[in-house]
Amino acid sequence: MRDRIALIVAAGRGTRFGGPLPKQYLPFGDTTVLGAAAMALRPFMPVACVIHPDDLERYRSATAGLDLLPPVFGGPDRQASVRNGLEAFADNPPEHVLVHDAARPDLPAAVVRRILAALEAHDGAAPGLAVADTLKRVEDGRSVGTVSRDGLWRIQTPQAFRFAALLEAHRQAAPAAFSDDTALAEAAGLRIAVVQGDARLEKVTGPDDAARLSGPDIRTGHGFDVHRLVPGDSVTLCGVRIPHDKALSGHSDADVGMHALTDAILGALAEGDIGQHFPPSDPEWRGAASGIFLARAQEMAAARGARILHCDVTLVCEAPKISPHRAAMRAELARILALPVDRVSVKATTSEKLGFTGRGEGIAAQATATLALP
Ligand code: MG
C-alpha cells in the first residue's frame, strides 16, 4: 500500500473562460499550468492527473518527462472527476490522498507540508485564507447589505484526506452536489482542518492570469567598454565631469561607464549593441552627452514593457579617483533610468598598475543590468 498519492483534477473544458485551450494547458513559465501543478506535488508523492479524454495528446505533451502515474479520465463535472480518480486506486488504496486543482499552478511546498501535518489529527485538511475584503450581498447591481466576514475563510487546494474515508463519502454523495471535496467530506461527517493557505495559490482563469502568476521573465545583460586617454583637462564618467590631467577620446563624450551600462540594458533586451543604434559614423553623435544613449536604451526597455530592476557599473582605472564622485554618478544614472538610487550601483577598481588601464592609457568599464520582461 502506498502512503499517499495526489490527484490533480484537470478534466475541465474551460467553458467559463471560453478560450479554445482549456486553462490547465495554458503556458506557465517554461511549462504549462498543469505541468507546474504536477511538478509542485511530485517531490512529495506519486501524482495522477484526471483529464478529459479529448485532451490526451495535450496532456502527454504538457507532462512529458514528469514521471506521473497513468492519467484517469474524468466525468461530466468536478465531483464526478474526483470520484473517477479515487475509484482508479480503490483496488490498491493509499492511506492518504491529496486532491488539487490543476488551475492552481503556483503551489508552495510549505502549504503541502502544513496540510500533511494537519492530516495527522483530522480526517481531512485544506489550505485557506481569511477573507480580508468587505463582503456585500448584491441584488440587481445594488448593495442590499454587508455580510460579516468574521470567521469566513476562502478555501484553496490541495485538500488532503484519508483515502478510504473520502472514497466512501464520494460513493454516498448526491451527484454534482458539492463545489469541492471539503464540502462533500463535511456532509459525510468528516472533520476537516483548515491551515494557512497562500495568496500564490490563486486560480488561473485565463491567459492573463497565467502570465501574471508565472512571474516576470528576468534577464540580465552585460556590457563592456574601453576608451583611450589622451591629453586634456577632464573626463566624464557615468554622467559626471571630473577634472583630470587627461581626457577620454571618442566620437561622443566617451563616457565608458554610461556606454557599458547602455550595452548591458540592450543586452538584456537582446537588441544588439550601442554601436548599432548610435553608429560612430553618424555626425549626430559627435561629442554627444552619453546620457542620450542610456535614455534611449531605457525607452526601448519601456517600449517592450520591461522594468529595469537593478544595474551595476564597475569602472577600471588608476586615476581619477572615483569615490568622491560615486554618489553623484549613482544619482545621475538613477535620474536617467527613472530608478531609485538604491537600485543603481557604481563601483571602481584599479588594475594594480597592470595593462592599459594600469598604465593610464585608457579607462575600462563593465556593467550589468537586470530587467523584468512581461
Ligand atoms: Mg564607448
Structure commentary:
It is a single chain. With 374 residues, the protein is α/β, with parallel strands linked by helices. It has two domains: 4-213, Spore Coat Polysaccharide Biosynthesis Protein SpsA, Chain A (Alpha-Beta Complex), CATH 3.90.550.10; 217-373, 2-Layer Sandwich (60s Ribosomal Protein L30, Chain: A). It is built from twelve helices and 19 strands. The chain has helices at 33-41, 56-62, 78-87, 109-119, 163-172, 181-187, 207-213, 256-269, 274-277, 291-303, 326-337, 355-358; strands at residues 4-10, 27-28, 31-32, 47-51, 72-73, 96-101, 124-130, 135-139, 142-147, 153-155, 159-162, 192-196, 217-231, 234-237, 240-243, 246-249, 307-316, 344-349, 362-373. Strands 1, 4, 5, 6, 7, 10, 11 and 12 form an eight-stranded mixed beta sheet that branches. A five-stranded mixed beta sheet has the order 16-13-19-17-18. Helix 5 crosses helix 6 (181-187). The chain is elongated, with a radius of gyration of 30 Å. Magnesium ion binds at residues 225, 227, 250, 256, 259.
CATH architecture of the largest domain: Alpha-Beta Complex
Uncertain ranges: none
Q: How much strand?
A: 25-35%
Q: How many strands? A: 19
Number of domains: 2
* Global morphology: elongated
- Which ligands does the model contain, each kind named once? magnesium ion
Broad structural category: alpha/beta
According to CATH, the fold-level topology of the largest domain is: Spore Coat Polysaccharide Biosynthesis Protein SpsA, Chain A
